[in-house]
Amino acid sequence: MKLCVVTYNIRNCRGVNGKVSLKAVASTIAGIKPDIVGLQEVDCFNPRSGFANQAARLGGMLGMYYVYGPNVTWGCIARFGNAVLSRYPIINWQNYLLPSRGQKRGLLLTKIKLGRKSIFFLVTHLGLSRQERLKQVDQILKTIGGVSGPLLLCGDLNARPGDGEVNRLQTMLQTCDLSNAELTFPADYPKYKIDYIFHSTHWVLAETKVFTSHASDHLPLAAAVELVHAK
Q: pLDDT tens digits for 199-222?
């Protein structure tokens, strides 16, 4: 089975022009035609983004299943975190808070049904300090160690190829690309690769591509993968 998976930091749907537009983010994602999407920096009931439940709204606009993993709470109802959109049913999910010194970070784990098979799809967004990120990666690896079956991990790592955080993840997973050819940040003049998609040995990578968009300060990274070992 072949899938198109995407990781995309949407910065609460705030574009390069500083304006919030769910429509712009939805249009960007729709143009990629993905099967599963991992989103970071997703607002829910936040006044800065019009009190929208962004994961639910995007899921509805794109005709996809969704789950939301809030990591930060502001006031009574405002939330901020990661989300997964999927064309296939999401049959189980769990949100893990990661060790964080500043803004709280998390790992959203989902189990997705692909016909008679199921896979695990995880999305994360690491912190801004290196030591914090290393601790977060250690926790992610412990969580992954308890999962059996085909797995994909994506997210904004705030780290570059060759950094310790990326190298540690590679002890258990394979990355879809480690070249600086796939620059994802900032969106209007990309200089850095800090967004990644990793996979277990159950998958074979066909290709990766960064898509141009001004709907966020990051660019979406897509990977075409094929499930070759279901067990």
A: 999 999 999 999 999 999 999 999
Q: Judging by DSSP bridges, how do beta strands 174-175 and 151-156 pair with one another?
A: unpaired
Per-residue b or e along 137-167, where b marks 16 or more CB atoms closer than 10 Å to that residue's CB: bebbeebbeeeeebbbbbbbbbbebeeebbe
pLDDT tens sequence across 63-98: 999 999 999 998 889 999 999 999 999 999 999 999
Q: Which residues contact 47 (CB under 8 A, 6 or more apart)?
A: 78
Please give the biggest Cα pair distance in the chain.
46
Residue 115 and residue 67: Cα distance in Å, rounded?
19
CA distance 201 to 43: 33
Domain 2-227 fold: Deoxyribonuclease I; Chain A (3.60.10)
Cα 169 to Cα 66: distance, rounded to the nearest angstrom:
26
